């Protein structure tokens, strides 16, 4: 599947230049990939990871900030962001049903530390239809952030900054963990993550060991 993604990105560019009529990887069979652990980052670890990414890949750094600060998904939502989905002061992102995985209208607030980075990259000066990463009407291939993370991850592992269980999605998971610990409200976490149901959120948090298990008092009693 990793080779398929790499080839798909290559043929995406080739077909975009009209050198081929269609992407041949679309006709190949997808194999089911096993889920990853997505271990959350510790507080001091998070800063080291972000500093490392910022020095190596600016677009990936912005993506990670948006995953953590706005809890957006990297491939289905962040990659498609244009200037037009931001309000004038970059305080809110408004996505239509066609612009997010949940297929519903979604609005997310932008924390100040994300706003500062967006302003430093002159995002307000872009045309409404321009993608904030490509700075044109074009959108990068689906594997863009995955490929960037894979390359940066090698250095993070070599420097013992992360473990093999840390992934690109660890930023979104870390945000969910911190929001849950701060609010103790799974419904707020559900809305922030854009999940269709609370069940999805509970499974999401359970994989991180943060959902309180049932106690003996919660178990059904035997009729007498």
Structure description:
The protein has helices at 2-16, 43-56, 58-70, 112-120, 144-158, 170-183, 186-193, 198-206, and strands spanning 92-95, 106-109. The longest helix is centred in the N-terminal third of the chain and has 15 residues, at 2-16. It has eight helices and two strands; from the N terminus they run H-H-H-E-E-H-H-H-H-H. The chain has a two-stranded antiparallel sheet with strand order 1-2. With 224 residues, it is mainly α. Helices cover 43% and strands 4% of the residues. The protein has two domains: 1-34, no CATH class; 41-182, hpI Integrase, Chain A.
Give the CATH topology of the largest domain.
Answer: hpI Integrase, Chain A
Helix content: 40-55%
Give the low-pLDDT segments.
Answer: none
CATH superfamily of the largest domain: Intergrase catalytic core
How far apart the termini lie comes to: 56 Å
Instruction: Kindly report the average pLDDT value.
Output: 86
Compose a concise summary of this entry.
The chain has eight helices and two strands, in the order αααββααααα.
Output the keywords:
8 helices; about 220 residues; hpI Integrase, Chain A; 2 domains; mainly alpha
Secondary structure layout plus pairing:
Elements: H1 2-16, H2 43-56, H3 58-70, E1 92-95, E2 106-109, H4 112-120, H5 144-158, H6 170-183, H7 186-193, H8 198-206
Antiparallel strand pairs: 1-2
Helix pairs in contact: 2-3, 3-4, 3-6, 6-7, 7-8
């Amino acid at each position: 599947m990793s080779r398929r993604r790499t080839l798909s990105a290559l043929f995406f560019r080739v077909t975009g230049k009209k050198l081929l009529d269609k992407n041949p990887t679309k006709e190949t069979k997808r194999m089911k990939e096993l889920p990853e652990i997505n271990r959350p980052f510790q507080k001091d670890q998070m800063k080291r990871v972000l500093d490392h990414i910022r020095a190596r890949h600016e677009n990936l750094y912005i993506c990670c900030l948006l995953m953590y600060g706005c809890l957006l998904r990297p491939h289905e939502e962040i990659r498609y962001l244009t200037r037009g989905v931001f309000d004038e002061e970059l305080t809110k992102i408004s996505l239509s049903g066609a612009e997010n995985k949940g297929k519903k209208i979604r609005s997310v607030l932008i924390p100040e530390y994300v706003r500062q980075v967006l302003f430093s990259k002159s995002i307000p000066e872009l045309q409404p239809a321009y993608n904030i990463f490509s700075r044109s009407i074009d959108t990068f291939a689906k594997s863009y952030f995955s490929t960037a993370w894979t390359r940066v991850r090698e250095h993070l592992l070599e420097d013992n900054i992360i473990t093999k269980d840390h992934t690109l999605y660890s930023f979104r998971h870390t945000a969910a963990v911190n929001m849950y610990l701060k609010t103790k409200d799974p419904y707020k976490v559900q809305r922030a993550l854009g999940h269709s149901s609370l069940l999805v959120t509970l499974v999401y948090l359970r994989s991180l060991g943060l959902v309180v298990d049932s106690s003996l008092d919660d178990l059904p009693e035997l009729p007498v």
